[in-house]
Design goal:
Chain A has 113 residues and is an all-beta fold. Chain A is built from no helices and eleven strands. The radius of gyration of chain A is 13 Å and the shape is globular. The N and C termini of chain B lie far apart (40 Å). Classes of the chains: A mainly beta (113), B mainly beta (109).
Chain lengths: 113, 109
């Protein structure tokens, strides 16, 4: 089955710790995205990548980092510099351009204690 | 600036019809998407409009007017499982989608 997986579904971390969220896709999509969703707000773009070994900052990249060493994988690290990291994190992928439908993984709910 | 507006919440009755509106102001336009998101889950794709007019897909239809910066999602024969948030998103000029905050639709028996 083709799709996008994110793990874990729920994640708890202590303040000051870095944490890495996994995102894997087997759809052969070139583009991958990380969003953050907070209650009552639209999805906000953290980082995106159009091709392997290249990625761009989105609207709220501060305190986050990514890598794109393989086409299938786009992990997101939430660093201790992110001031309010508790949120629902969604990974998405698309074939290439902004006209293509983005397909989402199930999301990771991160809670920082 | 770039802006997408949708009503925050709507209520409708099972079996009825509901129209969810979306207005947008964006730099660049590469189509408008509607997604459905159940509570605690990921958004799932519903429709895509890039030309003016109505696109029908079963119980769901989506309309676009580019000159007015306006779209709506029409849901017919509402079912309880349609209770969800509906997200409007516009494809911008730089490989990004600009997202509205979503409309929470509550279906009552």
């Amino acid at each position: 089955d083709g799709g996008i997986t994110q793990s874990p579904k729920y994640l708890f971390r202590k303040e000051g710790q870095n944490v890495t969220l996994s995102c894997e896709q087997n759809l052969n999509h070139d583009a991958m995205y990380w969003y953050r969703q907070d209650p009552g707000q639209g999805l906000r773009l953290i980082y995106y990548s159009q091709i392997v070994n290249d990625f761009q900052k989105g609207d709220i990249a501060e305190g986050y980092s990514v890598s794109r060493e393989k086409k299938e994988s786009f992990p997101l690290t939430v660093t201790s510099a992110q001031k309010n990291p508790t949120a629902f994190y969604l990974c998405a992928s698309a074939t290439e351009t902004s006209t293509d439908t983005q397909y989402f993984g199930p999301g990771t709910r991160l809670t920082v204690l | 600036g770039q802006n997408i507006d949708q009503p925050t919440e709507m209520t409708a009755t099972e079996g009825a019809i509901v129209q969810i509106n979306c207005t947008y102001q964006t730099s660049g336009f590469n189509g408008l998407f509607w997604y459905q998101q159940h509570a605690g889950e990921a958004p799932t794709f519903l429709s895509y409009n890039v030309l003016d007019g109505l696109e029908e897909k079963g119980r769901f239809s989506s309309f676009l007017s580019r000159s007015k910066g306006y779209s709506y999602l029409l849901l017919k024969e509402l079912q309880m499982k349609d209770s969800a948030s509906y997200l409007c998103a516009v494809g911008g000029s730089n490989y990004q989608l600009i997202w509205g905050a979503g409309t929470k639709l509550i279906i009552k028996p």
